[in-house]
Model the fold of this input.
Amino acid sequence: MAAELLALSALQAVAAIRSGELSPLELFRFYRERAAAEEARADRLNCFCWLAEEEPSAEGLRELPLGGVPLAVKDLFCTRGVPSQAGSRILADYRPPYTATAVARLQAAGATLLGKTNQDEFAMGSSSEYCAFGPVRNPWDRERVPGGSSGGSAAAVAAGLAPWALGTDTGGSIRQPAALCGIVGLKPTYGAVSRYGMIAFASSLDQAGPMTRTVADAALLFSLMAGRDPLDATSVELPGAISLPKAQELGGLGRRGRLRLGVPRELFEREGLAPGVRAAFERALELAGQLGAEVTDRVSLPHAPHALSAYYVLAPAEASSNLARYDGVRFGLRVEGEGLVDTYERTRAEGFGPEVKRRIMLGTYVLSAGYYDAYYAQAQRVRTLILADFRAAFEEVDLIVCPTSAEVAFPLGAKREDPWAMYLNDYFTVPMSLAGIPAISIPCGFAEEGGRQLPVGLQLAGPHFSEQLLLEAAHALEGALGFSGREGWV
Amino acid sequence: MGVGSGQLEPVIGLEIHVQLSTRTKLFCGCRVAFGDPPNTNICPVCLGLPGALPVVNKEALRYALMIGAALGSELAERSVFHRKNYFYPDLPKGYQISQYDLPLCRGGELEGVRIQRVHLEEDAAKLIHYGGSGRIHGSDLSLVDFNRGGTPLVEIVTHPDLRSPEEAGQWLRLLRATLKELGVSDVNMEEGSLRVDANVSLRPLGSDRLGTKTELKNINSFRYLERGLAAEIARQEEILAAGEEVAQETVHFDPQSGRLTVMRGKEEAHDYRYFPEPDLPPVQIDEQLLAEARAAVGELPAARIRRYEALGVAAHHACTLVFRTELGPFFEQALAAGGAPAGRVASWVVEELAPRLGEGEDPLEQKASPAALAKVVELVEAKRISTAAGRAVLEALLAKGGDPLEIVAREGLEALRDGDQLAELVAEAIAANPQAAEKVSAGELKAIGPIVGHVMRATKGRADGATVQRLIRERLGV
Done:
């Protein structure tokens, strides 16, 4: 029975509950026990920083679109009365008085809150090692990182500790851990999902999205969380409803018939792309061709190589301001000092980890008088050029395709002390974030490293609000790739 | 004023913060209210809780645009909110959402004083300090009341076009009346819904160069504005007379002691790291909102003062009728009742009616109707009753209401005509005041007072003063 339950995708679990074959509480207990057992291990994955203490009320769940299927939620989503700490000591045991819109919508649709997942502090990181509550491990190899910053959500889904999860993506924080853990991760168009109640890192980039086993699961979760929210002025209504993807092939998906996939040379012919990743990616491209797609490398994103530099100006700038509210006055950690300024300094010195401090300093610097034009304004110009690059590319092709990450999961500690090496993890994901366009990462096979077979991610990106097309294309590829992910289950 | 440096003239500019009287706060749905128990009108947004986001209040936008329209500003079609970053316990997010290089309104002018900009921003919370210095540094305990935090403020910045403390005060009264007329704010300086900072510098008269300015902060009454500016101007004059230079600094004026405290420049050296607020898309002002804002602006005080003056109202009466907003409607209704010239009606409203009312009392709620007052003025002007009798009728009207003509008849207040009775009384009065009569006869006309007084007492004020004077002079042959 346990094996059968675990084998159900979230969509299948919803169907089983709604048909009466499965009780929502049975499924909830099953996952909560699995998660609790894992967390009790000495070499635990450390996916969760909080697990549901009580079972949800089963009343009416069965009739709801999500049928009570449990959901793991990244720590930085505010959930009423439940610790929402954004992976930071400065918010240790902070329990907000309200629930984030994205979570509230899913709960209203019948999702039950299984737990809150560990993450890099304030989503600043690509390995889930910059966590106040200990690093997250990768279920495929416990000596390796799961990626980040949504590493807890990614590892929980990959390990079969949760049917699905919510993550957030600022420069790749859904897609890169999804790739490193062998699951599906969708970063929606900026504005498609309300940010209300998401503890902010960089407001102009942050987006919530689903992290799931299958593309269909991602579509279902996304369809129920998206749309305009009067509490988020940057949110918008989707131009059309999202439906479950059905495509088996790529032939007819394009605007002009065949789906045209463009591999931008700037995002492929890059030094540092691991040979195993390259091989898995090229095999997937061949498969895409067999499914009827036209794959071309005659598409260019000339400014993409500057994306990382622009990102590491803009995101820290916004973060330096967003994180000013952690001052010990109203909530969270307060370290009493001698007078006001001393209290501010001690609180923030003890509350924030080194990576967060690094970015606050960076962001404060680039916004300061005399440097604004050289850094912040210049980075905004680069951002505009990158958006123009994508617009031009989408005149030529329907979707962009590239690896999600240059390499597979790396060993714990390998990059922790080298910020620039860590930042390079976002090389393939940041351009889409700056352009505000949607992108999805799906597992496309394995690459061997250190004697282990580790998952490789493939990223598809499309124009603003092209989520349905992305999901259809990803679904067709997923079917042909036949990646099961079962080897990652604990 | 330094000898040899010629005369100096003050150059004054104002920065005014106006708390808007919208129903809810600028970026959340909390009530804007004064006097509620602390921390009752609060929510995740105005507390700056993690994850909370601002949404712009459309009513506040409309109010700000109305102010811009009233000041003749250029109303932006696209405007951007910026974050102004600094740490303080009354600022829950660690930044204030304000506006920077793309304000809602630019330019404009009010009675010759040019406006630089009009923008929207959120108010800070209120700090209450206990013990010690009464300021945050050195107090035993500081508490924060977030009820005020997030209240919409409009900031109005003028060019330095004012030339004296009195002019600054008078201009601010006009601005206050204008804002009150628009109905966008309570404009109460004591309660802080109208706050003023003034910057002032001195320069040689006739120069167009600006001297180094200082800023007078947190002025909470018209009197303090005028007294504070006068004190600061005197301080700067002394510095310049000693051959020294004025430093750019902030000055606090203590109205109790009349003393100025100079804050050292360094304390004020902030780098606010302004950048566009990423949580709010640029504000696109559509035609409908612009039209609504423009349509909501009716006749404004400056125009009304001009209209009154054109009707023959004395300038200072016109200003009083407009600045004391409760008097204007009464005056307009009295005028509409007809019968008396506008200048006289205005004079009666300002000089006779207003002093007989309590502070802030609405004359329209009194028993004396505007038409009745107009009738009194008409009777006085036609010399059917004397001025003194007119005052008596007004008192009676205020006490019990009624018809002025009936009161005149009942009380026997009808003026004594230029007839035998008055001539007799004049003769009596001259006989009773021989010394005064002698002086008047000798050409010392000022000595006529006691004789006139005698007639007035005898007629209980019913005689017309000018007529009595004429009769006395005729009789004495001067």
Notes: Residues 373-396 of chain A form the longest helix (24 residues). The domain at 2-251+478-488 of chain A is CATH 3.90.1300.10 (Amidase signature (AS) enzymes). Chain A touches chain B at residues 76-78, 84, 86, 91, 94, 96-98, 100, 195-200, 202-204, 230-234, 317-318, 320-321, 323-325, 327, 329-331, 339-340, 344, 364, 367-369, 372, 376 (CB under 8 Å). The first strand of chain A starts at residue 48 and ends at 51.
